[in-house]
C-alpha cells in the first residue's frame, strides 16, 4: 500500500519573527516533489503559528508542537486544541521526548492528548523513542511498544496519525541511527501495529524517523522500506531541509 512520504520540520523553541520570515521565504521559493510524492509540514513555536500560516505556501502544512490534554479552560499557560482548530492549524506534534523527559509527560498523558486532539479533528504526529540507557539495556522495543500501546488503547482510528520514531540518543546529538537501526525499529513497530491494531493500520500508518537527519544522511535512510519520512529538528531551520524533502523521490519506484 502506498504511504505518501512525510517530512516534518520541528523548529522547537527557536527563532525570532525575522528568522521565521527568512525560513518561510526559503521554503516558498523551493522546488519540491509534488504533493502525491511528499507531504511537508512545519512546526513553529505557538506564537509564530499565525505568521507562518499567513506566509507559508499552501501546499505545506503547519503543526503546533503541543496542546492541552482536554478542552480549554482554567489552565494557565496552556494552548487548547480548540484554539488550534480555530486558527486552522491542521497538525500537532505530541509526545516529543523533550516533553516526555523534561516535562515528565507520561505515556498515559500523551495517549490522552492524542485521543483528544484527534477527537477534535486535528492530525497528530505522535513521537516515541528510547533513551541510550534503554537501548543499551536491550529494552528499545519494550519502551516504544509501551508508548505506542498507550495511544492504541485510546484511539480506534489511525488515519490521522503519523508515528515518529525518535531515538533520544540521536536527537540533537549529530549521532544518527544507522539506516539498519532505523529500519529494524520501524519494522518492529509495524509488526506491533499489525498484532495490536490490525493489518490495515499496520500497512497504512506512516512511520517516520527523527534524530540528526540532515541533507547528507537522508537519502540512505529514506531508502529503507519502512522509513516513510522524517521529523527533522536542527536541519529544518536550514536550507538543507529542501534536500531532505527531495529525498522522498527515492520511493518513486515503489
Ligand atoms: O527532535 C527531533 C525532531 O523532532 C530531531 O531533532 P534533530 O534533527 O535536531 O536531531
Account of the protein in words:
It is a single chain. The protein is α/β, with parallel strands linked by helices. It has one domain (5-251): Alpha-Beta Barrel (TIM Barrel), CATH 3.20.20. Helix content is 39%, strand content 16%. Strands 1-2-3-4-5-6-7-8 form an 8-stranded parallel barrel, surrounded by 4 helices. Helix 5 (107-119) runs parallel beside helix 7 and helix 7 (140-152) crosses helix 8. The longest helix has 19 residues, at 179-197. It is globular, with a radius of gyration of 17 Å. It starts with a strand and ends in an 8-residue tail after the last helix. The mean pLDDT is 97. The structure holds 1,3-dihydroxyacetonephosphate. GO terms for molecular function: isomerase activity. It comes from Eucalyptus globulus. InterPro entries: Aldolase_TIM, TIM_sf, TrioseP_Isoase_bac/euk, Triosephosphate_isomerase, Triosephosphate_isomerase_AS. Pathway: Carbohydrate biosynthesis.
Gap from first CA to last CA: 9 Å
Oligomer: single chain
Q: Which ligands, by name, code or SMILES, are bound?
A: 1,3-dihydroxyacetonephosphate
Principal-axes shape call: globular
List the SSEs and their pairings:
Layout: E1 5-10, H1 17-29, E2 38-43, H2 49-55, E3 60-64, H3 81-86, E4 91-94, H4 97-102, H5 107-119, E5 123-128, H6 132-136, H7 140-152, E6 161-165, H8 179-197, H9 199-204, E7 206-210, H10 218-222, E8 229-232, H11 241-246
Parallel strand pairs: 1-2, 1-8, 2-3, 3-4, 4-5, 5-6, 6-7, 7-8
Residues 10, 96, 166, 171-172, 210-213, 231-235 line the site of 1,3-dihydroxyacetonephosphate (13P).
Amino acid at each position: 500500500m502506498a504511504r505518501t512520504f512525510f517530512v516534518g520540520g520541528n523548529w522547537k523553541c527557536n527563532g525570532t519573527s525575522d528568522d521565521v520570515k527568512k525560513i518561510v521565504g526559503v521554503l516558498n521559493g523551493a522546488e519540491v516533489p509534488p504533493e502525491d510524492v511528499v507531504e511537508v509540514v512545519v512546526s513553529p513555536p505557538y506564537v509564530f503559528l499565525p505568521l507562518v500560516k499567513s506566509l507559508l505556501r499552501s501546499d505545506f502544512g503547519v503543526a503546533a508542537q503541543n496542546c492541552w490534554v482536554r478542552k480549554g479552560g482554567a489552565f494557565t499557560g496552556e494552548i487548547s486544541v480548540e484554539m488550534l482548530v480555530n486558527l486552522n492549524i491542521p497538525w500537532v506534534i505530541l509526545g516529543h521526548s523533550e516533553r516526555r523527559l523534561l516535562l515528565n509527560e507520561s505515556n498515559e498523558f500523551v495517549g490522552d492528548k492524542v485521543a483528544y486532539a484527534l477527537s477534535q479533528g486535528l492530525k497528530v504526529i505522535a513521537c516515541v523513542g528510547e533513551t541510550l540507557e534503554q537501548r543499551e539495556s536491550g529494552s528499545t522495543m519494550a519502551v516504544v511498544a509501551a508508548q505506542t500501546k498507550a495511544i492504541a488503547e485510546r484511539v480506534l482510528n489511525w488515519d490521522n496519525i503519523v508515528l515518529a520514531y525518535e531515538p533520544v540518543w540521536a536527537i540533537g546529538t549529530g549521532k544518527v541511527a544507522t539506516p539498519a537501526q532505523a529500519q529494524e525499529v520501524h519494522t518492529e513497530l509495524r509488526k506491533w501495529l499489525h498484532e495490536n491494531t490490525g493489518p490495515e493500520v499496520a500497512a497504512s500508518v506512516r512511520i517516520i524517523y527523527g534524530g540528526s537527519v540532515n541533507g547528507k544522511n537522508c537519502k540512505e535512510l529514506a531508502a529503507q522500506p519502512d522509513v516513510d519520512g522524517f521529523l527533522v529538528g536542527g536541519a529544518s531551520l536550514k536550507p538543507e531541509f529542501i534536500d531532505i524533502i527531495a529525498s522522498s523521490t527515492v520511493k518513486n519506484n515503489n
